Amino acid sequence: MTQTLLRNLLFTLVAALLxxxxxxxxxxxxxxxxxxRPVANVNVYVENAVFGATTSPSGxxxxxxFVPGNALVINDAAYELSRTVAxxxxxxxxxxxxxxxxxSWRESNPAxxxxxxxxxxxxxxxxxxxxxxxPGMMARYFENTTELKATKEIRKVSxxxxxxxxxxxxxxxxxxxxxxxxxxxxxIYQAIAxxxxxxxxxxxxxxSEFNLQLPKYGVFVAMEWMITEQNYTVETKxxxxxxSKDLKLxxxxxxxxxxxxxxxxxxxxxxxxxxxNWKPVDxxxxxxxxxxxxxxxxxxxx
Length: 302
Hints:
The chain is mainly beta. Helix content is 6%, strand content 45%. Mean pLDDT is 86; it is low at 14-20 and 102-108.
């Protein structure tokens, strides 16, 4: 009886080990479909996972913990959404450039403009969203309310950030909301690189040159972390433990931190993109019943 039980347990253990997908190192190359030129500084996400990478100046990327057969997702402002299943340990992804649509643009008249500031920013904030060591995006949603019908044009965006050096940068995107309130299509089909100052800083980006009309269902102001050498930081913290030596913890992170304010009322307006999917932060269960609302301000006018 004991030997039979032991054999069954051993069989169960072996079967469990065999069912665990084998991890491999994936090396990839991202090219523009028509010209076959390398595409630099785009984020490659492993679908429904926390892994990913940012392409180098030569268009290459490396994902060290990858299960062959999983899908890779590229969601970039300048290119069509891409989903590629990588069956081996090397892959090449071809991206198709987006074509501009001018239907949502209109002529502006700054002399008669009435300006509205949406979401008051604090001078300082101790809270915020960190990248960790995988790519991702954070976005703040702004509803197109009845009160904003006379103020249709997007003028500026201000974002409160914290950076450990003056060389870090992130990508800024404006994304139209779908009718169900989820992020939809980009309003600007080009990468906008933003470089915040060292320390905590409110960085303001002037968007008036684009003559962007506020979408019918609102807009998401999205900030994209890039896994690059210039954004790389190492944090060391000391944890005090009773009756023992202090424990030093080292954490790898990529700048900047997108600052946020704790909110305990109203609808959730902050979203996170990871693993090829957008989710409102309340579904992450971390801060319930409160959530961290991104310190982002949108300036619109008529």
